[in-house]
Design a protein that fits this description.
Layout: E1 11-14, E2 19-22, E3 25-29, E4 34-41, H1 52-60, H2 66-69, E5 77-81, E6 85-88, E7 92-94, H3 96-119
Parallel strand pairs: 1-7
Antiparallel strand pairs: 1-2, 3-4, 4-5, 6-7
Length: 127
């Protein structure tokens, strides 16, 4: 048995070693009795987690890398489905390929829904 509180504030990394965020919420599927999603805040340059490796790398480099100059992501909440999680321990490891596929499917679903809403004709009221 695992307490949900053990997941809060765990760092989330993808399989490419990039930091995604920290667990803010754990969403449960009560009917199935399992975790559905981990939720984390999207990263911005201001709240990016800096690890020891970054401190050493940045202290020895005179010119910042291009990826360090631009913001990493915009603000918002990222849903990480449990199906894309490959390991949970001291950190949560996410399969980057599956996560990218999930994000693409979510974006296309949102675009489809917004197109459907724009196609709905509103009634014209004549005076």
């Amino acid at each position: 048995m695992v307490n949900l509180s053990t997941f809060y504030d765990l760092n989330i990394y993808n399989t490419e070693g990039k930091f995604i965020g920290r667990v803010n919420e754990v969403v449960l599927n009560i009917k199935k009795g399992r975790i559905s999603f981990f939720k984390t805040k999207a990263l911005t340059e201001d709240n990016r987690n800096v690890g020891l490796k970054d401190v050493f790398r940045n202290s020895l480099r005179l010119v910042p890398e291009e990826e360090d100059v631009n913001p990493i992501r915009t603000e918002g909440i990222i849903d990480i489905p449990y199906e894309v999680v490959t390991a949970v321990g001291d950190v949560i490891l996410v399969n980057q390929e599956k996560f990218a596929q999930y994000q693409s499917s979510q974006k296309s679903r949102i675009n489809d829904n917004s197109q459907k809403r724009s196609m709905v004709k509103k009634p014209v009221i004549k005076p």
